[in-house]
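This entry is listed as follows:

___
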Amino acid sequence: MPAKENKKQYDMQYAKDKLKRIPLNVQKEKYEEIKAAADAAGEPINGYIKKAIDDRMEREAAGSRATQQTPEPQSPKQPAEKLEKHFKPFTEEDARRIDLPELLKNVRYQLDISDTFGMDVLAALMEKAREQSADT
């Protein structure tokens, strides 16, 4: 059997044993946005998406660890859905990483920020982004 055929069989068996395929459907416009961002980062689309997933999981885990360290006692009289959500503190480092022009046009980005830092931080960032946009 030629070496190419052996390599092909090995790759197929490796994929079958070690990988799990995740179908991802996006609108064509969204695909073009993702592709442009991946190209700008110098990464293939697949790697760019995997990194975005890893980054979000890391942020959520960090937020989860912060709330686990200082648990709030739950009142038996207060339903779980009425409990206040605890958000990650918004730091200067976080502020430097926020892409304000992207924030104005990307609803998912807005939702990620509000889920991580809360609506007050999102509102302040949106106001800053609008001011910055008006200045340019």
